[in-house]
Amino acid sequence: AREVHLASRPEGFPTGDNFDLVEVPVPTIGDGQLLVRNIVMSVDPYMRGRMNEGKSYIPPFEVGQALSGEAVGEVVASNAPGFAVGDKVRHFLGWREYSAVDAAGAAKVDPDAAPLGAYLGVLGMPGLTAYAGLLEIASFKEGDTVFVSGAAGAVGQVVGQVARLRGAKRVIGSAGSDAKVKYLVEELGFDAAFNYKDGPVGEQLAKAAPDGIDVYFDNVGGEHLEAAIDALTLFGRVTLCGSISNYNTTTPAGVRNLGLAVGKRLTLRGMLVFDLEHLRDQFVREVAGWIAEGKLRYRETVTEGGLDRAPEAFIGMLNGENTGKALVTL
Ligand code: NDP
């Protein structure tokens, strides 16, 4: 069996040299564990943070050891009550062909209810991040004008549509290519969208939202966050979800206009999706319902060809090559 190790810590943007594909024995399982043959795995922006040394909300990956991340696979041996051979489970020991998973860290998924990849995207962690981050963290309410960055990605594509379906006055998105902008407006029903590479974000946002914005869902940080602070109305709310523009640089951008938050009485609130499990059932019910009714659409960018292509898929995602959730099939 094979797994992907961290070969070295990246300086700035990761390269293929930071990863090693290593041959290891298929793991043996102890009491209360499952042996899972992985079928599809997720590559996520937060993994870039774990490649750095240092203290964070989640421990760093170790050089010379396997990476990990969310994956869905099939149980091929079970030493745990409640799990049978053939069950499909979601767990956090991806980046390897076979995983020995504690039953407590595995959740069954229903392959008949949705394609397996959806459990890592629109109906999984990124979907919950979008749903809970908008409704709970930003206290979204009907009639709000909402701006989301990274809008054509796994989280962003759901944020904009939940806002639209829950009665936003206007939904605006930014993304890094014209094709993504087209996807947002023509397929997902955003009211306006722009390519942030076309010119200053502040100018483009002011055009797209002439009356300002009430909510900003921040996936990007830096210039986007500054532009949003400028555009926010009194008592505006910001979900600080991620700041991907700073993940691959050793000189992260500051936010120079934070002082405006005082007079505007803004709320800027950080979030981690792990705190928002209490909304999972409601999220799955509502979003799965919208998908079934054809009201909410999503894309996935699937890299086929197994674990050897996982580093390439991860780097591609950081470069914006994905639309919707970036996945790797094994
Ligand atoms: P995406 O599917 O959105 O993929 C990442 C995207 O980021 C790329 O496709 C690219 O799109 C965009 N991007 C890359 N570099 C830049 C840049 N310099 N400026 C602007 N955009 C850039 O990933 P996710 O939806 O999985 O994650 C989105 C954000 O949400 C990330 O910041 C992530 O860390 C965060 N997150 C936070 C969670 C939490 O609990 N707080 C949970 C899950 C995700 P483009 O072509 O538009 O540039």
State the order of secondary-structure elements, H for helix, E for strand.
EEEHEEEEHEHEHEHEHEHEHEHE
Shape: globular
Distance between the termini: 12 Å
Strand content: 15-25%
Question: What's the structural domain tally?
Answer: 2
CATH architectural designation of the largest domain: 3-Layer(aba) Sandwich
Please report the first level of CATH classification, the CATH class of the largest domain.
Answer: Alpha Beta
| Alpha plus pi helix count | 9
Mean pLDDT: 97
Q: Spans of 5+ residues with little confidence (pLDDT < 50)?
A: none
Bound small molecules, by name, code or SMILES, are: NADPH dihydro-nicotinamide-adenine-dinucleotide phosphate
Give the C-alpha Rg: 20 Å
The level of helicity is 25-40%
Number of strands: 15
CATH H-level superfamily of the largest domain: NAD(P)-binding Rossmann-like Domain
Q: Might you state the CATH topology name of the largest domain?
A: Rossmann fold
**Which structural class do the helices and strands define?**
alpha/beta
Largest sheet: 7 strands, mixed
Organism: Saccharothrix ecbatanensis
Protein name: NADPH-dependent curcumin reductase CurA
InterPro entries: ADH-like_C, ADH_N_2, ER, GroES-like_sf, MDR_fam, NAD(P)-bd_dom_sf
Pfam families: ADH_N_2, ADH_zinc_N
